[in-house]
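Design a sequence for this backbone.
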């Protein structure tokens, strides 16, 4: 099939000769590091941390935390430098993990927001998932129904295929390292924990006994192995999801390793009933003890069992058709808001849509893929029009393709980011600690991009001028910010927008906020459900 190359200024699509061009510059387009900022503040000054552990490992714990100024809930991985040891510290182990994370731009992996460092700890701040992990899912359900198993395994293999194409090997895939988010019949999985991940050498091999013993491939006891160790781990995960138990146990690590090498796994059809023959066939290929005959992630994704949809195409269509016009006059502000203020529910459907559109699983969607998707529902002319419309909304992408981060930035609805609860916190903190009617620096941060955002939003507030001595609701300021973000006209004064919104609402409505003129700060009058 030819490539459809969509030039934004062209009225027609130019068809190139083959798909090969996509892969020739794959490393240029997709392996550009995503900037992961180091926050130079003290972690405890920025986040409030809960004592209860969400998880733990050899080097530290994972806990829930809340940004003190914005109220955004995250998870933080706290790595103890003493437990890391001098050899890891001298080898810049943590920075190497950051480098790996910087290369990952894909919906199958948890989103990392920033990191901190003090004398004793590293802090890695990431998305928080209420849904728990696959181990908790197995404990609650024991055996998963096959339709749910298919959705999970397809997403895991898509993620691992992406990693392996980047020459990255995870080396610790297990039930606990797969987070899930379920709602309305959909499930989204996220791979976490890159503590033992490594780049393949030029010879395509790695060494060292790393990972969790129950999921280790037989060849790990040898001096050298390759990315197929991750495939074995996925096979163990699929087995556990199908049967409710792990295939190998033992009295000691040495005993378990010996069993993995010598004892075959029971993959009898009767034992795995009611799993379909196709599902069992894939499981056997994932759990081949010989890595040379073990299926690869790319090959597995072409297996008959996984060629089923695995996604809700109707929801993907609705997601694409509901994209907001992305004509933001201030793209820096929008990019910053997407990076720092989104939570999992803001982009779950976008993640699933991207996974369905990325039909060759490399983290890049061609506009041809979008056109082919729309043809499932429309004739060619309508599909072409729908695709053209989407092109106009995904700014900054390449002529014929876009990456996950570009798709996410385009698809996020700013109304979900700038919801009234977040605007409320903004209004509360805006004058915190000063009497100058200025935005508190802690709200947006202190790096270069956040300073630009700080100044931009401050201009909007200053345009309101004397309007700040009026009663004001978060909805009023939300309207101003949204219109300023999306407006193409420099004549759109914030004060005029504000006046218009005030006219649209009765001043007799119950006010969420009242600006206390003499105290120079906002106070809560009535607002519920602070925890979002």
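Sequence:
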């Amino acid at each position: 099939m030819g490539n459809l190359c969509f030039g934004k200024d062209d009225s027609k699509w130019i068809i190139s000769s083959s798909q090969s061009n996509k892969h020739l510059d794959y490393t240029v387009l997709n392996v550009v590091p995503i900037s992961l900022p180091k926050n130079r503040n003290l972690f405890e000054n920025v986040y409030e941390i809960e004592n209860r552990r969400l998880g733990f490992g050899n080097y530290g714990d994972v806990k829930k935390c809340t940004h003190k100024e914005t109220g955004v809930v995250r998870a933080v991985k706290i790595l103890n430098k003493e437990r890391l040891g001098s050899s890891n510290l001298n080898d810049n182990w943590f920075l190497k993990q950051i480098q790996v994370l910087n290369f990952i731009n894909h919906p199958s992996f948890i989103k990392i927001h920033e990191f901190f460092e003090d004398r004793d700890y590293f802090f890695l701040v990431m998305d928080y998932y209420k849904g728990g992990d696959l181990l908790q899912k197995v404990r609650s359900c024991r055996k998963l129904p096959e339709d749910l198993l298919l959705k999970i395994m397809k997403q895991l293999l898509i993620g691992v295929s992406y990693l392996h194409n980047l020459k990255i090997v995870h080396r610790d895939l297990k039930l606990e390292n797969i987070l899930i988010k379920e709602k309305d019949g959909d499930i989204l999985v996220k791979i976490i924990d890159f503590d033992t991940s490594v780049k393949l050498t030029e010879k395509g091999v790695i060494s060292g006994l790393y990972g969790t013993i129950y999921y280790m491939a037989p060849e790990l006891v040898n001096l050298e192995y390759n990315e197929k160790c991750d495939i074995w781990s996925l096979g163990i995960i699929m087995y556990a999801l199908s049967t409710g138990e792990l295939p190998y146990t033992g009295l000691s690590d040495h005993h378990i390793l010996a069993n993995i090498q010598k004892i075959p796994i029971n993959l009898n059809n009767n034992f795995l009933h009611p799993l379909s023959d196709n599902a069992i066939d894939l499981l056997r290929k994932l759990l081949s003890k010989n890595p040379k005959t073990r299926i690869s992630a790319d090959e597995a994704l072409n297996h008959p069992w996984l060629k089923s949809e695995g996604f809700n195409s109707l929801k993907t269509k609705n997601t694409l058709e509901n994209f907001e016009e992305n004509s933001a006059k201030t793209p820096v502000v929008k990019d910053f808001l997407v990076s720092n203020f989104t939570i999992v529910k803001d982009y779950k459907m976008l993640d699933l849509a991207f996974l369905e559109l990325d039909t060759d699983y490399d983290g890049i969607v061609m506009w041809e893929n979008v056109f082919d998707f729309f043809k499932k529902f429309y004739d060619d002319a309508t599909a072409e029009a729908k695709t053209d419309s989407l092109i106009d909304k995904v700014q900054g992408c390449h002529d014929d393709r876009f990456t996950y981060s570009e798709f996410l930035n385009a698809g996020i609805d700013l109304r979900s980011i700038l919801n009234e609860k977040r605007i409320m916190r903004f209004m509360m903190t805006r004058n915190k600690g000063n009497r100058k009617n200025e935005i508190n620096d802690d709200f947006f941060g202190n790096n270069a991009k956040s300073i630009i955002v700080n100044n931009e939003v401050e201009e909007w507030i200053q345009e309101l001028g004397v309007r700040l001595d009026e009663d004001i609701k978060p909805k009023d300021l939300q309207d101003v910010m949204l219109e300023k973000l999306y407006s193409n006209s420099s004549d759109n004064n914030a004060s005029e927008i504000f006046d218009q919104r005030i006219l649209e609402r009765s001043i007799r409505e119950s006010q969420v906020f009242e600006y206390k003129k003499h105290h120079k700060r906002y106070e809560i009058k009535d607002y519920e459900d602070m925890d979002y």
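The chain has 24 helices and 15 strands.
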